[in-house]
Amino acid sequence: MVPNRIKERTEKLTQSMDALRVAAVAFHTHEGILITDAQANILRVNRAFQEITGYVADEVIGKNPRILNSGRQDKAFFTAMWGQLLEEGAWSGEIYDRRKNGEIYPKWMTISAVKDAQGNVTEYVAIFSDITARKQAEEEIRNLAFYDALTGLPNRRLLRDRSQLALSMSARNHLCGALLFLDMDKFKTLNDTLGHDYGDLLLVEVARRIKACVREADTVSRLGGDEFVVLIEEIGANLQDASQKAASIAEKIRTVLTDTYVLNGHEYHGSTSIGVCMYRGNKESMDVLMKHADMAMYQAKDSGRNAVRFFDPVMQHVVEAHLELETDLRSALLNRQMQLYYQIQVDGDHRPIGAEA
Questions:
Q1: Same domain? 104 vs 48
Q2: Which of 27, 157, 239, 257 has the fewest CB atoms within 10 Å around its CB?
Q3: Can you give the pLDDT of all 357 residues of the chain as single tens digits?
Q4: 157 shares a domain with 47
Q5: Same-domain pairing of 185 and 257
């Protein structure tokens, strides 16, 4: 009987030592490990934890893991996390924490509950890894897929996605929008004379100037080469009023793009031709609208460049008449050409009661 007991104790001791060796090896992994008691007070951390978070063991032992909280997750997030942990005994997911130096970083974490023979939680073990590099790689891939590498503007693919949403919102809210198609005048001449490096510098500056002319909610996109598209959303319920606003925006862009450029010490004077196509609702696809704006842009080119043209001839006439009237009024005021006339106002008995100008 005694030898059997000794044998059992020896086996248990061997198992315990094996478990300790396994735990020791596991604790030296490159992943951060955090062990708490059942009340979530930190009992032990490994070296990787210290390297990732910046905290040494003495600074965190006895404290709650909330000292790492970044503030990015709300109360509902942690309520759901603890609900799953208590119900299923494990939780895993992406979370943002804060290092000792204040830097916020993303990590992938798995938390497991350790229970005794009676099923009571004795410890929680959290294993996590810093996924900053992975998130940066994902962001780079996303940027390559949706943004122009030179200017940082949305590319054709992202423009298409935003355009579909804009058309749907236009139909739902009964508001008009506009699509502006821009092409830099004589851009090839710049590339041929000074080189493509200067052409790239120009395109970057053009992108910056266009963005400064529109709202943050509007989309400025580079399709490629020297072609840009501006998607302007929800600028009015009345088509004519919206067209006037679109014309003002287009004219503002045209004007700012004629200002002198300084490219590596070289002065350059450029201009752009702009085609405008209005939309209301989603009766026409974005491909059709793009085609119409492109056609209007070529009309601007044919008219002598450095101009704005609308696809709709009637709308173009209205816009031109409005701009002409505005120009004439400004000139008349400046040159003191306005004449004021009074007309008498009378009551029912034809007695004068005032005058109107």
A1: yes
A2: 157
A3: 445 554 555 455 454 444 444 454 455 678 898 889 999 999 989 889 999 999 999 999 999 999 999 999 999 999 999 999 989 999 999 999 999 999 999 999 999 988 888 888 888 989 999 999 999 888 888 878 899 999 999 999 999 999 999 999 999 999 999 999 999 999 999 998 889 999 999 999 999 999 999 999 999 999 989 999 999 999 999 988 999 999 999 999 999 999 999 999 999 999 999 999 999 988 888 898 998 999 899 889 988 999 999 987 665 666 677 778 888 888 888 898 888 888 999 998 889 999 998
A4: no
A5: yes
Domain of 264: which CATH number? 3.30.70.270
Instruction: List CB contacts of 236: < 8 A, sequence separation 6 or more.
Output: 175, 176, 242, 245
Distance CA 54, CA 112 (A): 23
- From the candidates 226, 259, 302, 349, which is the catalytic residue? 226
Active site annotation includes 328? no
Instruction: Let me know if residue 93 belongs to a domain.
Output: yes
User: Does residue 177 sit in helix, strand or coil?
Assistant: strand
CA 185, CA 166: separation in Å to the nearest integer?
A: 29
Same-domain check for residues 94 and 233: no
